[in-house]
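Researcher: Next sequence.
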Amino acid sequence: MSITSRESAFRETAAYGGLIDAIGGLATVVIAIVGLSGVNAPMMASIATIVFGVALLVQGGTMLSEYAQIIFPAGSRATNVEGFGGSSLSVVFLVGVAGIVLGVLSLLGIEPATLTPIAAIAFGSALVLSSNAVWQLHVLSQESLRSRDQMGAGGSEILASEMAFGSAGIQALSGLAVIVLGILAIAGTANDLTLNLVALLALGATIVFTGGSLSATLLSFMRSR
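Model: Next structure:
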């Protein structure tokens, strides 16, 4: 298989990764809404925590893979990426794994009222720390194209740029809100389970948007090559 074919397959897989974590976010939203409607809320909170942890892992893997492909392109010199890095993505991986573990433990009945809010706080912190990751990835992709004397994709590139920039602010604000909700829930505030489900709902909605932004960025980059 040629280098071009490998790159094409790689980028298509990465773009699908953005769609998969968006689907995971949507599933989290649906499960949280079911819990808020009163259908076995503790179990729904635990399941939503597990689903979101998986979605976070997928998103982290997708972005890290694309970072690596842009910085070390096959058959080409490395892109100048001073000031950029995927270090915050390691936090996303760790938090995703931790969230899955906490969700499983709470699903087994081990302190669910404590573990799921802790997971929500961790998820919110990960969103804040990695809030600019999609925007950085977009900037890196454009820098990579310029280094190869290739032009952007016109309207699609502009749309991807706007989505990537907007997702950074939304993700940071949502992460902060989730942290506050998680702290209130773990502090034993009245309706703590409701607060936890609302936090999970916000997390799911956020990753749906960032997953869409990630896919738009990657698809725009593929079309520009």
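Model: Confidence is low (pLDDT under 50) at residues 1-7, 78-84, 152-156. Residues 3-224 form one domain.
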